[in-house]
Design a protein that fits this description.
about 30% helix, 28 strands, alpha+beta, 3-stranded antiparallel beta sheet
């Protein structure tokens, strides 16, 4: 049977990540970066597309598993008839080449173990040439090379284009497997002691987790989400990928399958808020610096997403040799939404830089001039329609959330100039823009009969993004229009207490067939809105319901299917874990992303 999405755990080295199933199989790993081709792609195909399984002989699934303390070192326990064994999976934070290390440790008795590894480069399409060399099994194909060894050496042989190993472990014994990727034209990488690497990896994560300053309720869930966000960070640049996977479906068997191995500007404010609130200023500064580098240039060319190092070209393609997760085709790489116009990102970038400034991050000399340039462009374009926050592949519309974020851009500029009068800029000009946006949204984006903001001008459809209105300061939480919007979204977009992004009853809204699950980030936004409007008990109940949707190691995908009761979408999803941290902070009164609403423009 195909493992469920929630059957996977995450390991990583801050440059890429792997998914390990409850059956002991690594079914997804892109090397050497998050956005590289996968050498294990069974997640989106079959075992013939690449995987690496280590388990007791004849066993189907583990007994239990979890992370070692507050780390990203995975411990999987198997209780066999003859004894108990533990498999420790991790990726050391690399100095040079990426490595996956799997240590099998006997706990009691003696257990017969097996390892089967099928390396398939370029998303499972290329079978490498295998040979023995210097105590390794070496796989080579084109630019890719992978070296496999065990310590101590165990019986290993080739079989049906795979590498098999058979060995036993008794209580107290350990056998380590090390898989190292490197460019095929380079010499063999230096050997790393896997047992020393385990100690240093545990120490690295323990030290990092100890720096978390959040000590409020639900700390275990918060720190696990922060570790996940750290694991989704591309260390060399500070960029944070939306997820380490591509094409995990929003509907099983459907076509809503996208590549999320890139960095979205839409996540910037909430990501910065989560990191700053938890005390991770170094990571927040790295993300801010990535943001500044990525968006530099002509404001008209601002994209909604970029590559790990700020790359702009992310061409979308389909991989027909992969059948898709549970036959959910097509499998895609790249993302055509990169060329969409989403006007909300201008507000999100400006708000992010405001938050960074107010948090005390070292100011960059060009940051303010960049913001003025972005705002000047937005001033002339905010009245135009766009594809909106959710990247619809249908007709452009005047999305309310996009207009609200244009208001945010002008509002944050005004606030910055009021606090820093020596900065260049025309505060009166931005006040006028702020007032114009606010007035238009309240006139054209609000349905007075139903007492709710709508998804777009003239539409009756609702959008969960309007739950962010009180968070942005566009209107105060006690405004009847805010309360009405919260109630309407919960009533019309709610599903088993969770929230969908918008209605997908037909293809006319987003240009796509099929449906999707409840969007977990939006469900956290509902909890935030309930907190802001004084319904803390309801918010707490919803938050704890969301916590119960995490898998056994604390991870969340993008969405949750309330019909089949399973996680769907790319996994683990940064946006979901950002939402978890933000809601926990809000319930504890420690949310740093919300502006002071007492000075917001309340006209209209």
């Amino acid at each position: 049977m195909t493992p469920r999405i929630e059957d996977y755990a995450l390991i990583g080295d801050l440059q890429t990540a792997a998914l390990v199933g409850r059956n002991g199989s690594v079914d997804w790993l892109c090397l050497p970066r998050f956005d590289s081709g996968a050498c294990f792609a069974a997640l989106l195909g079959t075992e013939e597309n690449g995987h690496w399984r280590i388990s007791p002989r004849g066993a189907d699934t583990c007994t239990r598993r979890g992370y070692a303390g507050e780390s990203l070192v995975l411990e999987t326990f198997w209780e066999a008839r003859t004894g108990t064994v533990k498999v420790i999976d991790f990726m050391p934070q690399r100095d040079q080449e990426p490595e996956v290390m799997r240590i099998v440790e006997g706990v009691s008795g003696t257990v017969e173990m097996s390892s089967v590894i099928r390396l398939r480069f370029d998303f499972g399409s290329v079978v490498p040439w295998m040979r023995r060399a210097q105590g390794h099994r070496v796989a080579v194909a084109g630019p890719d090379s992978a070296w496999l060894r065990s310590e101590p050496p165990v019986k290993t042989w080739g079989q049906q284009f795979s590498t098999c190993s058979s060995f036993s472990v008794a209580a107290g014994e350990r056998v380590a497997f090390v898989l190292t990727w490197h460019p095929s034209h380079s010499p063999r990488p230096e050997l790393v002691d896997p047992f020393e690497a385990l100690d240093s990896t545990l120490a690295d994560w323990t030290e990092w987790s100890a720096a978390c300053r959040y000590r409020g309720p639900y700390r275990e869930a918060v720190i696990r989400s922060l570790i996940t966000l750290k694991a989704l960070t591309y260390g060399p640049t500070g960029g944070i990928v939306a997820a380490p996977t591509t094409s995990l479906p929003e509907e099983i068997g459907g076509v809503r399958n996208w590549d999320y191995r890139f960095c979205w500007l839409r996540d910037s404010t909430l990501t910065l808020g989560a990191l700053i609130s938890a005390g991770y200023l170094e990571e927040a500064a790295a993300w801010r610096d990535w943001l500044l580098r990525a968006v530099a240039g002509d404001p008209a060319d601002l994209q909604i997403m970029y590559g790990l190092s700020g790359e702009r070209r992310l061409p979308e393609a389909e991989l027909p040799w992969l059948r898709g997760y549970e036959n959910s085709a097509p499998v895609r790489t790249g993302n055509a939404a990169v060329r969409q116009r989403q006007l909300d990102v201008y507000g999100e970038v400006i708000d992010s830089l405001r938050l960074a400034r107010e948090a005390g991050l070292d100011d960059k000399p060009h940051a303010w001039s960049l913001q003025l340039s972005l705002l000047g462009f937005l001033e002339s374009t905010w009245r135009e329609p766009d594809e909106g926050l959710w990247e619809i592949r249908g007709q452009r519309r005047h999305f309310v959330h996009s207009k609200v974020m244009a208001w945010v851009a002008a509002d944050r500029a005004v606030r910055t100039l009021e606090k820093n009068p020596t900065l260049a800029g025309d505060a009166n000009r931005w006040r006028a823009m702020r007032e114009s946006v606010h007035r238009e949204v309240c006139e054209k984006g609000f349905d007075p009969v139903r007492n709710t903001f709508t998804q777009s001008y003239g539409s009756r459809n609702l959008d969960a993004a309007t739950l962010l209105i009180p968070r942005t300061g566009f209107l105060p939480p006690d405004d009847p229009r805010v309360i009405g919007t919260v109630d309407a979204v919960r009533r019309e977009l709610g599903s088993d207490c969770l929230v969908r992004r918008y209605s997908t009853d037909g293809a006319s809204i987003d240009g796509l067939p099929g449906r999707e699950g409840a969007f977990l980030a939006c469900s956290f936004w509902l909890a935030d809105a309930l907190t802001a409007t004084g319904r803390t008990e309801e918010a707490t109940d919803l938050f704890e319901r969301l916590l119960n949707l995490r898998n056994d190691v604390g991870l969340l995908a993008e969405e949750y299917d309330t019909v089949t009761h399973r996680q769907v979408g790319n996994f683990p999803q940064a946006f979901s874990h950002i939402g978890l941290v933000g809601t926990a902070m809000a319930l504890a009164g420690e949310d740093t992303t919300e502006p002071d609403t007492t000075r917001s423009d309340r006209a209209g």
